Amino acid sequence: MAEWINSAFRVYLRQRYRQIERFMQQPHETQRLLWRQLMQYAQHTEWGKRYDYGSLRSPEDYARRVPVQDYESAKPHIQRMMHGERDVLWPGRVKWFSKSSGTTSDKSKFIPVPGVNLRQCHLMGSRDAMALFYHRRPDASMFAHSAMVMGGSWERFAPYPATMFGDVSAIMIEHLPWIARMNFFPDIATALLPDWEVKLERLAKAGLSNPDVVMIGGVPTWTVMLFRRMLEMSGKRNMLELWPRFQLYVHGGVSFSPYRSQFQDFFPSGEVEYMEVYNASEGYFSAQDTANAEDGMLLLLQNGIYYEFLPMEEWEQEYPRAIPLWEVEAGKNYALVISTNGGLWRYLPGDTIMFTSLHPYRIRVTGRTKQFVNAFGEEVMVDNTDRALAETCMATGAMVSEYTVAPVYLQGGQKGGHEWLIEFERLPADMETFNALLDSNLQKVNSDYEAKRYGNIALERLMLQAVPQGTFYRWMRARGKFGGQHKVPRLANHREYVEEIKELLRESA
Fold this sequence. Notes:
Elements lengths: L1 H24 L1 H16 L3 H5 L8 H7 L5 H12 L13 E4 L10 E3 L2 H22 L9 E4 L4 E3 L7 E3 L1 H7 L3 H4 L2 E2 L2 H4 L4 H13 L4 E5 L2 H15 L13 E4 L8 H7 L6 E8 L2 E6 L8 E3 L5 E7 L11 E2 L8 E8 L10 E8 L2 E8 L3 E2 L6 E2 H15 L2 E10 L8 E10 L4 H15 L1 H7 L9 E5 L3 H8 L17 H13 L1
Parallel strand pairs: 1-5, 3-6, 3-7, 7-8, 8-9, 20-21
Antiparallel strand pairs: 1-2, 4-5, 9-10, 10-11, 11-16, 12-13, 12-14, 14-15, 15-16, 17-18, 19-20
Helix pairs in contact: 1-2, 1-6, 10-11, 13-14, 14-15
């Protein structure tokens, strides 16, 4: 029975892949058509009437008329929607809202998830990811065996209980079609538990009882915690001793580079694959379509999102000019601007991306518009630090669990620099060698940092402090950001995070 279901899914996903191929071949036409559909859907909403969507004739008209928005601009409209108002940003009443993790702020963001956005963006994105995987892996058996998702939780909005909000992963799990629930493991109730420590313990016990797990999806940080607990409870050396059929780990939310060596220890087999996806609270944007992670992720152009891109020089402008897909260049950092079937209009999610390919359009996430270090003109992005750290670990045999970076500002006659707090899973043999090599590798991947480091004219060599294992988990818990989609902020152009962690260490000394 299970093999028959998997075969049926294989046929369905093959048909979906043909549709994906069409938008890969006609990306600009696909995006222009989707833009027209979005304008038609929303023209009678309050927002659509304000900007007279019905009279717009081209994406260029749209860009001239509607300003780029951030969350603060959209927040008053979203709050009204959460209290039950209809036809504000999207037709009808929206019942579900995804809650962002808020990595750069203590405030949470609530993003509308109307039914069409859930079905034709988030859930469709998951199907597209599977279509891409089955295309390159004919022996895939995701629907013949058990699949686990490290999801979040949802709850009712107290001021208006007919509205629900939670992690986008939880909303997707809650609305899984019945056929997808057949191999979902262990059960929906466990997957949606709000207490992460209780959830991890139950998932670990359930995982030990089922050798048939073939796939797991989740943010690397919390997946690592689950695997460590399972190995601790079982006494096994790696996860393949527990899950011998395992084929695929689907990850997203943070760069996989710092975690890759840990997962290779968990799954010491060339048969296990890793697939990066970009499923944010605002939409399911992309999925890895080749076996090589360096190729980037295929931009999903047919799933209810019209894309624009903000060049780096426009980020701080009062009236920034975003460009359409057909004007982008490979190798440049852009802030993502989206218009969606969730009611977001020329909206900045806060993520930065770089195109790795234009035929087809593939991207990689390089960071956040508010997660960078640029105190001295070095313009260091998360993608730079992830890559430098991965190269350094590979060369030294070290293994990193978590890290964060902050600037060290000029004081008196001293030069500036960067301070790194790193939690090691496996320490390097020589910390001084690791430090020097990390600084050298960062210069290799960022020419601005290299220029500022030349001759120590503007920047001293980075300073590194190894922190005890468990430090970042304790810090995240203290901030009320433990579990789910919460992620350790890698970079900040201020010292708030670094000083909080150092204070935590002093208190526990």
